[in-house]
């Protein structure tokens, strides 16, 4: 069921095998065994992406509940023995993981060797969706989320800034507004990234649809494209300053609502395993200390 769920979520046997650290033939055989046992095709493999059939959608929802219940049973029994161990999968957006968590992950590995910790890299929007639906126990997201269903703590808040080529007419401005970008070509993250949605919504509120000419999940590549004059981008000030590309000019934004606000999130009114409770307490302590020093 774990394998089937992962294939359905990733819409790919290859990606699912990569995330679960198994071979593709293994995961394919497991899914085929489920289909043979039920006597139904659960996954449509005919297109570029694997899609759930009508039967697959029913099995997906029931499998998710069964797997979740079994995981909770294992977690509660582990807690009962007071063992300092457990399994935890954390969702981290790529740009966030590389800048905030390497040291924390190393310390947790040393201090809690009994915790089997796995990191999956999803866009912030997908992380929030996965935590909300229960397929991830905990993760980091950006910007607003449904506080009715999730608990959280905020650990970083950084305004977005505008990055333009030095030859742009905007480069002479001391600050800029979203309205000033109506005629510009945008270089943005893909749709599954929360920052993408935040920026496009701000443009829509300003009365225009942004003209998106490039998409990338790598902020350094986005800055490189700006340096070559392909367009503009909006990125967190602390991140984009690290690029230090001479031909790129950074301009503060007047819109304070455009901010890289990072939150650790987990499901509200939901049993948290020892591993999850440890992750929350240790990361909250480490991140608070990190930014007090900074």
UniProtKB/TrEMBL annotation:
Keyword Glycosyltransferase applies: no
PROSITE patterns: HTH_LYSR
A single MF term (Gene Ontology): DNA-binding transcription factor activity
Ranges for domain HTH lysR-type: 1-53
SUPFAM superfamilies assigned to the protein according to its UniProt record, in alphabetical order: Periplasmic binding protein-like II, Winged helix' DNA-binding domain
Keywords attached to this entry: DNA-binding, Transcription, Transcription regulation
Pfam family, one: HTH_1
GO CC entries: cytosol
InterPro entries xref list: HTH-type_LysR_regulators, LysR_HTH_N, LysR_subst-bd, WH-like_DNA-bd_sf, WH_DNA-bd_sf
Record has Transcription as a keyword: yes
Similarity comment: family membership: Belongs to the LysR transcriptional regulatory family.
Name of the protein: LysR family transcriptional regulator
């Amino acid at each position: 069921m774990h394998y089937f769920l992962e294939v359905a979520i990733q819409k790919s046997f290859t990606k699912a095998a990569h995330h679960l650290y198994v071979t593709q033939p293994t995961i394919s055989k497991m899914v085929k065994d489920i289909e043979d046992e039920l006597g139904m095709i659960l996954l449509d493999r005919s297109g570029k992406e694997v899609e759930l059939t009508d039967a697959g959608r029913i099995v997906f929802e029931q499998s998710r509940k069964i797997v979740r219940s079994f995981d909770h049973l294992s977690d509660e029994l582990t807690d009962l023995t007071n063992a300092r161990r457990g399994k935890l999968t954390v969702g981290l957006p790529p740009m966030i993981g590389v800048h905030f968590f390497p040291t924390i992950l190393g310390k947790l590995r040393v201090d809690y060797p009994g915790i089997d910790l796995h990191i999956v890299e999803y866009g912030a929007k997908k992380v929030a969706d996965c935590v909300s639906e229960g397929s991830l126990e905990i993760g980091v997201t950006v910007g607003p989320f449904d506080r009715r269903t999730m608990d959280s703590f905020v650990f970083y808040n950084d305004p977005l800034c505008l990055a333009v080529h030095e030859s742009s007419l905007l480069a002479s401005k001391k600050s800029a507004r979203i309205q000033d970008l109506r005629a510009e070509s945008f270089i943005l993250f893909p749709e599954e990234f929360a920052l993408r949605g935040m920026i496009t919504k701000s443009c829509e509120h300003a009365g225009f649809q942004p003209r998106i000419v490039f998409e990338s999940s790598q902020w350094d590549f986005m800055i490189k494209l700006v340096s070559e004059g392909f367009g503009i981008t909006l990125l967190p000030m602390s991140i984009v300053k690290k690029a230090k590309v001479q031909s790129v000019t950074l301009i503060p934004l007047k819109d304070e609502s455009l901010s890289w606000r990072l939150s650790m999130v987990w499901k509200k009114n939901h049993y948290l395993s020892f591993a999850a409770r440890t992750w929350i307490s240790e990361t909250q302590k480490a991140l608070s200390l990190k930014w007090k020093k900074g």
